[in-house]
Amino acid sequence: MSTEQVTADPRRWKALAFISLAVSLIIMDATVVNVAVPTIIQDLGLTASDAEWMNSIYALVFAALLITAGRVGDLYGRKKLFIIGVVVFGIASVLAALSDTASTLIFARLIQGVGGAMIMPTALSSINTLFVGRERGIAFAVWGGTIGGMAAVGPLVGGWLTTAFSWHWAFLINVPVVIIVLIGAGMFLRETRDVHARRGLDFAGILLSSIGLAAFVFGLIEGLRYGWWEAKEGIEVLGVPWGLEVSPVPFAFALAIILLTIFVLVERARGRADKPVLLDLSLLHIRSFSFGSIAALVVSLGEFGLLYALPLFLQGGLGLSALDTGILIVWLALGTFIISARTPALTRRLGARGVVRLGLALEVIAIIGLGVTISLDTNTWVYAGWLFLYGAGVGMATAQLTSVILIDVPVQQSGQASGLQSTFRQVGSAIGIAILGSLLVTSLGSMFSSALDDVDGIPQESRSGLVMAIEESAGAAIPEISAVVEDQLTQVPGVSPEAAAEAANDVQRAAEQSMVSAARITMLSAAGVVFLGLLATFALPRVRSDEDEAETATTPAGSD
């Protein structure tokens, strides 16, 4: 942390409430929209490619602009950029709600990504600037608890809005929240910036980092659709037929590596020449920041991979509705909220590193518990218990890990550091969804194909189509597979209605059991990844106690 002392802002706790609400808006929006996707596809007539791009474009833009937004906030004012980001996000939400074509909706999601990228790093850097010592740990606990809770409540809200009203409300619900945040931030959030920074923007760094990160996230997101190495048949990239045998994904990764390597070299050269830089590479020499960011990347990989696989299992394997899935996942929110109130006291007893490790250990235990106990006959209360424990772990680990990452970062560099650590998390989540999502789909397809060998009465030519339907839908087609098979078999000469119904039920059971097995493999793999994140925290240096940090002074560091 900076050696500069900061005077406590009497409005800081009120400001924290609106900062947390704004970040929760981003998190909840993603989960709300995920639940509404099937209805949006049906209502607007979206293709599978359109639906994927509706989510992909948001992730691409969000990840690509985080570092840039953090630096702009440092230079020109964190509050200013935060408010602009909230306004942009709100306008994009209205545009998305009013969309009647795929292109309009995809464009609106792109603009939402821009707004979200402005909000996230400026929110984190503002917390890091406004709070010090013990209060910073409490502030990050509140921030993390609010975000974790909203992430879990999102599916419930999305399911209810989509079912009771329409998918348009999945976006319109953001508008009143945006208005509340704008009023609160305008009244209580203090403007801060890096008063010592060299003026001017590093346009070369912005271009290289944005395109490089976008290419990397593109490869992660599109690997399943385009093929990780060999191109799948009939694929199109941005509407243009892809004529090469090699998938576009390796090219995207190669471009990312080249551009990000050049980015590092350019930043190093500009720093030596005393020119403005987008990213001060000296941040990577801060051990708590560098090792903490690596741990955050690995943990996000496991956490987001799990949160991607779990709803697919609950809806595809167990046949729960979107609303019922949201209700069950609320137990995760309860665990997060309840433990967040105890996190500051735990931090005083165990230290920030100890709380992070305890939280990650609880996450590992809960994910293993889910993986071991899932079956078609398991009582949903068992899942609720594991999700509650998992939520408690998230409530401990997420906020305190963020606090550890930023604790030694000079206040004037908070924006850069916040943007970079958010980028690590975003990349980790994209990797997690790509790797664990691929594992789930691949395992599901393989196991279902094998299970069909034991089902009598299914023509060989129909089996590949059934496997493809289950695989391409990531299990979402399982609840309807029985009706589809029965309808097909009743049209086959010589097959009685009773035999068709029996075979259809066998196929349904085989698909559900395959989903259980695939989800188990995915969850246990996610537990292994989070465990690696737990091990990574042992490389973190000892975090200074609250008493080691200054809590009073005459001039707020980096403020107007």
TrEMBL record:
Family: Belongs to the major facilitator superfamily. EmrB family.
Annotated compartments: Cell membrane
GO (cellular component) term, any one: plasma membrane
The keyword Transmembrane helix belongs to this UniProt entry's keyword annotation: yes
Its membrane topology: Multi-pass membrane protein
This protein's UniProt keywords: Cell membrane, Membrane, Transmembrane, Transmembrane helix, Transport
InterPro entries noted in UniProt: EmrB-like, MFS, MFS_dom, MFS_trans_sf
Molecular function per GO: transmembrane transporter activity
Gene3D superfamilies documented for this protein: Multidrug resistance protein D
Pfam families: MFS_1
Protein name: MFS transporter
Location of the Major facilitator superfamily (MFS) profile domain: 15-544
Transmembrane segments: 15-41, 53-69, 81-98, 110-131, 138-161, 167-189, 201-221, 249-267, 288-310, 322-343, 355-376, 382-407, 427-448, 521-540
